[in-house]
Amino acid sequence: MRLSRYFLPLLRDDPKEAEILSHKLMLRAGLVRQSSAGIYSWLPLGLRVLSKIERIVREEQDRAGALELLMPTIQPAEIWRESGRYEVYGKEMLRIKDRHERDILYGPTNEELITQIFRDSVKSYKELPRILYHIQWKFRDEIRPRFGVMRGREFLMKDSYSFDLTVEDARLSYNKMFVSYLRTFNRMGLKSIPMAAESGPIGGDMSHEFIVLADTGESEVFCHRDLVKLETPGADLDYEGDLSPIIRAWTSKYAATSEKHDAARFASEVLENHRVTARGIEVGHIFFFGTKYSEPMGCKVQGPDGGLVTVQMGSYGIGVSRLVGAIIEASHDDAGIIWPAAVAPFDVGLINVKSGDVDTDKVSDDLYAKLQAAGLSVLYDDRDDRPGAKFVAIDLIGLPWQLIVGPKGIKAGEVELKERATGARHSLSFDAALHRLAISAAEPGREAA
Ligand code: 5CA
Q: What is the pLDDT of residues 150-204, one digit of tens each?
């Protein structure tokens, strides 16, 4: 993509309305614009990141055996009356009347709708277990939308729903989602820690929040330090095999959000120098709630002995749009964002230091074509601007690699390759630079991306 033809409105100064760093950087780097409180438009660069995150989430859901569908944002009130949640959900729910004076709502979550779909379509235990998911916009009229996309009113969520015949089977579905979440966040360059959590308005008695440690996190969290170093399962994992050793490794050591925190247990179970007290961002939340929705909504299947059995359910959410902010909180420096390669909007920023100069134009254009031919996505700064301004902009938007083409280097047959994360710079021949970047495109982090 040539920057001269792109839409990338950068801001030089920190916007006043932004309290935390990720929000400031998202506005400055031209990723989003606020439309009204807690509601954002995604500009081209931001949308590329959001789509990459979505893709990783989708790939890991599919790998775990979940099936994608797409439910609407607007739901009828009746099904929420059936579950009993229409009245109790309170002001967070955006309630609307259509032209026929019928009550409809913008979905804050989808337990009712998926239960209705399942109930009307599945009749026999032979069609269980199933995990269904979608990636769809939600609306919650948060009392205090803040921190940009981290606590928005309209936000993108991946929500999965599991359907099982027995509680034991439902635990297996829960475990699949648990493990897939570890992999999902890890692929985005995040270290997430599952923590015992309250289930709130979703309900149920087994629930884990997936927390990314960051100083600006909204939740205070407590855990054993070993969990911060624990290894994430690899891509060769068999989801139909026994996942319990992985679950045990991640749940046998103390980890809790402030609502579930038990100071006495923390003190007795964890040695003082092993205790981590930190702030965290909740990027995912999984729940097992048994028959909370299937019972009142009559979601039953015929069991093996012919009798009707009420289905056991769980639900599993990931804050897809929140993740964009969470990744920035976890990965930035004074100059701007540092995107992990797997979610970067482009792989390489190609900088023509002297646009308009015949030689630098020729070499830059040639490298631009060759990088793309090698399968890399490139943002090519071909604008007629000062080199200093170009360097500031490319650092701010945080692409993993910068390839800098200037007249002096060209005379020596060289370009400069800069790695954004470390700041390391190397002068290389054109071919060597291309070769180095082509290798990075084939690195394992990108394997399935
Ligand atoms: N139905 C369940 C699971 S599918 C559910 O709604 N869970 S939730 O309320 O915990 O939300 C799932 C995830 O969405 C959270 O872990 C969080 O990452 C994200 N999320 C929740 N509220 C917001 C918000 N206001 N802005 C951005 N992301 C949010």
A: 999 999 999 999 999 999 999 999 999 999 999 999 999 999 999 988 777 766 6
Q: Which two tokens stand for residue 272?
A: 């003082």
Instruction: Tell me how far the alpha carbon of residue 402 is from its chain's centroid.
Output: 25
Nearest Cα to 321, choosing from 31, 60, 9?
Answer: 31
Ligand 1 touching residue 233 (CB < 6 A): no
- pTM, two decimals, is 0.96
129 lines ligand 1 (CB under 6 A): no
Confidence of residue 448 (pLDDT cuts 50, 70, 90): very low
Is 146 touching ligand 1 by the criterion CB < 6 Å? no
Cα dihedral: 295, 297, 301, 303 (round 10): 10
Looking at the DSSP assignment, which residues form a beta bridge with residue 349? Answer: 379, 402
Residues 109-119 have pLDDT tens digits of 999 999 999 99
Distance in Å, CA 157 to ligand 1 centroid: 7
Question: Please, where are the H alpha helices in 216-333?
Answer: 226-229, 244-251, 263-269, 320-330
What is the DSSP track for 86-136? HHHTGGGSEEEE-TT--EEEE-S--HHHHHHHHHHH--BGGG--EEEEEEE
Question: ∠188-192-193 over CA atoms, to 5°?
Answer: 165
d(CA 157, CA 200) in angstroms, rounded, equals: 17
Structure tokens at 244: 């319990």
Q: Contact 368/380 with Cβ under 8 angstroms?
A: yes
Cα 282 to ligand 1 centre (Å)? 8
Alpha carbons 45 and 30: distance in angstroms, whole number: 7
- Give dist(CA 169, CA 175) in Å, integer: 10
Closest by Cα among 352, 219, 346 to 284:
219
Q: 18-65 pLDDT, tens per residue? A: 989 999 999 999 999 999 999 999 999 999 999 999 999 999 999 999
Q: What interhelical angle do 21-28 and 320-330 show, nearest 10?
A: 100
How far apart (Å, rounded) are the C-alpha atoms in residues 123 and 136? 27
Separation between Cα atoms, residue 330 and residue 338, nearest integer Å: 9
**Which of 111, 285, 318 gets mutated to test ligand 1 (max ligand atoms within 8 A of its CB)?**
285
**Packed helices 44-63 and 167-187: angle between N→C axes, nearest 10 degrees:** 140
